[in-house]
Amino acid sequence: MLTTALAVSSSTALLAVGVTGVAHADPAAPLPIDGLQAPGLPAVQSIGPVIQQAAADPANAASMLMAAAAVFAGDAAAPAPSRDVATAVNQFVQPVAHVPATGAVPGTEAHLPAGVNPQYAVGPVPDAAPEVAHVVTPQALPGPPPAPGPDPVAPPAADPAAPPAPDPAATPVAATTPDPAATPAAATTPGPPGFGPNAPVTQDFLYPSISNGCLADGGNVLATAISVAGPATIPLPGPGPGQTAYVFTAVGTPGPAAEQKLPLNATWVNLTTGKSGSVTLKPRPDMNPNGPTTLTAIADTGSGSIMSTVFGQVTTTEKQCQFMPTIGSTVVP
């Protein structure tokens, strides 16, 4: 009996070890991010979980987010980027009526608040001095050096019958007239290259995400997250009216694995309507199949001021990557 009991106990212990070993097969927790590498991350890591809590209690979402943001915005010891992130969240959450951009029709087209230039990927465009076209004057035209003149002697007497010599400075030069057909397109078209007037309005998250050891050689990876307010044409099939699309791109990574082992989620709360929810971002075969790994999702957020956080893991063809949370704000018409 004693021998049997010992055998049973040994089998149970081996079974427990085996089960424990399977549990440890999950991706290990990443190393902490250096504060010097990501100075604004402490605020994001603090406010991100609050957005998740606010999604469970959307009626008190605004007060919860304002309280969390005030901790960093009023902390003189916090890094300046953390205070900037907290201030941006606090300003977005403030219950101020949304003022559409001039010419935008609410409910029919995506738009940003007044003061934000839709020709740029995100953010208010700082005031800048107007560009002035450079005009070349005849005096500034390059040319061969003047030929050496004769030794200085007394000038000959002027012939009253000869016509006066032309003044070079007063002679018009046809080559200085700018040719509109020869003007580069970049000099006449405002905004960054590749963004046409019909490009959808994208709204960047407040801070990039970061993953430790996400590359095959152990290097770190930054990821950008953007939101697209519907109606829009990207990402396919495109968010419709009252929807928000999320696009998460892990810069420098290879393509995504066919199976995402653990999810990358976007949790959102509509501060205008009190609606909230969560959606899982997934790769698309028609978007960067060879890299960088890009995951997308479309959420039924409804119209209003949307506060979101994206967090979780991404599976590339090389590594399993844990990405730090990032937060973003979206205006959906």
Give your account of this protein's structure:
- The protein has 333 residues and is of the alpha+beta class.
- It has a domain at 202-332: Immunoglobulin-like.
- 21% of the residues lie in helices and 20% in strands.
- It has helices at residues 2-23, 41-56, 61-73, 80-93, 185-188; strands spanning 202-204, 209-211, 221-229, 244-250, 264-270, 276-283, 294-299, 304-315, 320-332.
- Strands 1, 2, 3, 4, 5, 6, 7, 8 and 9 form a nine-stranded antiparallel sheet that branches.
- A hairpin with a 5-residue loop joins strand 5 (264-270) and strand 6 (276-283).
- The longest helix is centred in the N-terminal third of the chain and has 22 residues, at 2-23.
- The chain is globular, with a radius of gyration of 31 Å.
Percent in strands: 15-25%
Give the helices and strands as they follow along the chain: HHHHHEEEEEEEEE
Tell me the helix content: 10-25%
Average residue-wise pLDDT: 74
Number of helical runs?
Answer: 5
Topology summary:
Elements: H1 2-23, H2 41-56, H3 61-73, H4 80-93, H5 185-188, E1 202-204, E2 209-211, E3 221-229, E4 244-250, E5 264-270, E6 276-283, E7 294-299, E8 304-315, E9 320-332
Antiparallel strand pairs: 1-3, 2-3, 3-4, 4-7, 5-6, 5-8, 6-7, 8-9
Helix pairs in contact: 2-3, 2-4, 3-4
Biased composition (Low complexity): 170-189
Region (Disordered): 137-197
Biased composition (Pro residues): 141-169
Kindly list the characteristics that best describe this protein.
Immunoglobulin-like, globular, alpha+beta, 333 residues, 20% strand, single chain
